[in-house]
């Protein structure tokens, strides 16, 4: 694609925990290019080759783009969002406290993780995130390949160390004490929760972008958005909280996870959930509630972000 045809949107690289500032080049809802955006507090004017080329998955033809709900006998059927939200709310309202686990990807935004934390508190659920460790280059490519592992820890969604609760969740499913599993953005069949364990669950809710073993086993399948298709913030490995902007429209029926979570929380009568009507308001509410982010506002983040109080 000729570069002068591209729309440019301010964003962040999601390939690792460094959080390099980027420009997404897109045209007609297709992502064609990443390039670095200057931020002296993070990446100066650079980004690594791995991150620069890691965008093609956003354009994959097999992206999840249809909402599906249980159809009986282990099958699923297409459904409209309002019906799915209503049915899912009814199922979650009937779940006994303490019988639910939530696995929330450290590739979700701070705002999404904040709302997932509210859902976990409402259900009395155990939570966990999944670590991704690979070789770094000691320059820009960090060994932590999650863009928001720091955010997951600061928001209380991750165990210590990250991933420590996975075995506990697997044992709970095996013993029948965990009957409901909610998964955001992870294929847990690759991390010790195989199809045999998932088949024991009474309710499996999965929100994801790409198909996998977990989406195949889901009772409710909720198509989510890539970061290029929504707004939000990540907290990088050094505690820098940075925002990114929407570049392209989501595929099919996919919706930003924060919107779906808000509707679920409202239906579940979680106090204050009705106030999360805008991304700005949601961030500001999170910043007021979470010690590490106190004093921040969406507007004050600007284009280069602010550093969280990671000692809190």
Itemize the secondary structure elements and their pairings.
Blueprint: E1 7-12, E2 21-27, E3 30-36, H1 49-53, E4 68-72, E5 75-78, H2 81-93, E6 100-104, H3 110-123, E7 126-128, H4 149-154, H5 166-175, E8 180-184, H6 195-198, E9 203-208, H7 213-217, E10 220-223, E11 232-235, E12 240-244, H8 257-267, H9 279-289, H10 298-301, E13 306-307
Parallel strand pairs: 6-7, 6-8, 8-9, 9-10
Antiparallel strand pairs: 1-2, 2-3, 4-5, 11-12, 12-13
Helix pairs in contact: 2-8, 3-8
> How many helical elements?
10
- Give me the secondary-structure category: alpha/beta
Largest sheet: 5 strands, parallel
Strand order of the largest sheet: 7-6-8-9-10
Low-confidence segments, given as residue ranges, are: none
Strand runs, count: 13
- Computed over alpha carbons, the radius of gyration is 19 Å
Shape: globular
Helix proportion of residues, in percent? 25-40%
Strand content: 15-25%
- Mean pLDDT reading: 97
- What is the terminal-to-terminal distance? 46 Å
**How do the helices and strands follow one another from N- to C-terminus?**
EEEHEEHEHEHHEHEHEEEHHHE
In short:
Helix content is 27%, strand content 20%. It has helices at residues 49-53, 81-93, 110-123, 149-154, 166-175, 195-198, 213-217, 257-267, 279-289, 298-301; strands at 7-12, 21-27, 30-36, 68-72, 75-78, 100-104, 126-128, 180-184, 203-208, 220-223, 232-235, 240-244, 306-307. The strands form four sheets. A five-stranded parallel sheet has the order 7-6-8-9-10, with helices on both faces. Strands 1-2-3 form a three-stranded antiparallel sheet.
């Amino acid at each position: 694609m000729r570069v002068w045809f591209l729309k440019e949107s301010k964003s962040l690289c999601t390939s690792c925990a460094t959080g390099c500032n980027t420009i997404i080049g897109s045209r007609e809802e297709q992502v064609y290019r990443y390039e670095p955006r200057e931020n002296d507090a993070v990446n100066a004017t650079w980004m690594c080759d791995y991150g620069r080329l890691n965008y093609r998955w956003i354009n994959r033809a097999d992206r999840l783009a249809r909402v599906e709900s249980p159809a009986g006998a282990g099958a699923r059927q297409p459904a409209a969002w309002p019906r799915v939200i209503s049915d899912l709310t009814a199922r979650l309202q009937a779940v006994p406290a303490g019988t639910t686990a939530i696995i929330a990807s450290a590739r979700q935004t701070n705002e999404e993780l904040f709302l997932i934390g509210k859902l976990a508190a409402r259900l009395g659920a155990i939570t966990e995130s999944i670590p991704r460790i690979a070789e770094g280059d000691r320059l820009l490519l960090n060994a932590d390949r999650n863009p928001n592992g720091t955010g997951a820890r600061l928001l209380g969604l991750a165990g210590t160390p990250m991933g420590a609760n996975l075995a506990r969740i697997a044992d709970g499913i095996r013993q029948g004490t965990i009957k409901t599993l909610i998964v955001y953005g992870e294929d847990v069949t690759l991390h010790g929760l195989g199809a045999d364990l998932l088949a024991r669950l009474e309710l499996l809710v999965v929100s994801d972008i790409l198909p996998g073993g977990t989406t195949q086993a889901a009772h409710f399948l909720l198509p989510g958005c890539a970061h290029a298709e929504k707004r939000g913030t990540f907290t990088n490995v050094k505690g820098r909280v940075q925002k990114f902007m929407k570049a392209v429209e989501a595929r099919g029926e996919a919706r930003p996870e924060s919107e779906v979570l808000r509707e679920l929380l409202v239906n579940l009568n979680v106090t204050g959930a009705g106030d999360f009507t805008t991304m700005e308001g949601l961030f500001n509410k999170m910043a007021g509630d979470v010690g590490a982010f106190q004093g921040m506002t969406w507007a004050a983040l600007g284009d280069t972000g602010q550093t969280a109080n990671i000692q809190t």
